[in-house]
Design brief:
single chain; about 190 residues; Alpha-Beta Plaits
Length: about 190
């Protein structure tokens, strides 16, 4: 599994209805994309708990081939044309777990990025993070949770989809506008730690 995300931060007075319309009319185009486990079309609006207007889709790929195909294809080129070329962040997958609400469409998502402390052995830190991910997957309202690592910067990415408004916890909170899940079942095979 590979996790990937790009963030498009928009002006404070940007009409976020444009993003909602974009996802409503184009989101279905990824519903059968080969190699895509999950694409969560994420958005947050300035005010409340978000300091910015942002469109920030997060992808869980079953392998690098699907990710590479997307990045060279027309969907990503449309993003580049409309918003400029974003920095694409990516992490190696460690685990993916379905939650008790896995049959429900998610309404929100949380993303927590955290460093692995230099004083902690990577194997210990990643093992503990996998256990925390498994615990979180059992929380009422969890649709699914994924854990990934960027070993270049030793950063963990913990991503959870929820069937209700995202809990008030550490990390960024997003509204889920659409969910594409063509190969979601294959992500269960992705426990790599």
């Amino acid at each position: 599994m590979h996790a990937m995300q790009y963030e498009i931060t928009l002006p404070a007075d940007y009409d976020m209805g444009i993003i909602r319309d974009r996802v409503a009319t184009r989101g279905h185009l990824m519903d059968a994309f080969p190699g895509l486990g999950v694409k969560a079309y994420l958005m947050r609006e300035r005010g409340g708990d978000s300091p910015v207007n942002q469109y920030a889709p997060l992808y869980l790929w079953t392998g690098p081939e699907g990710m590479n195909s997307f990045l060279r294809g027309p969907g990503f080129q449309g993003i580049v044309q409309d918003f400029g070329r974003p920095e694409v962040q990516h992490w190696t997958g460690l685990s993916y777990e379905e939650g008790p609400s896995s049959a429900t469409l998610p309404r929100s998502a949380t993303r927590l990025r955290s460093p692995v402390p230099p004083s902690t052995a990577p194997a210990d830190a990643l093992g503990a993070a996998v256990e925390e991910s498994r615990r979180l997957a059992k929380v009422a309202g969890a649709v699914a949770t994924a854990l990934a690592v960027d070993p270049r910067h030793w950063e963990l990415l913990h991503f959870t989809l929820w069937d209700h408004p995202a809990p008030q916890e550490a990390g960024d909170r997003y509204e889920v506008l659409h969910l594409s899940v063509p190969e979601r079942a294959r992500l269960g095979e992705a426990r790599q730690w």
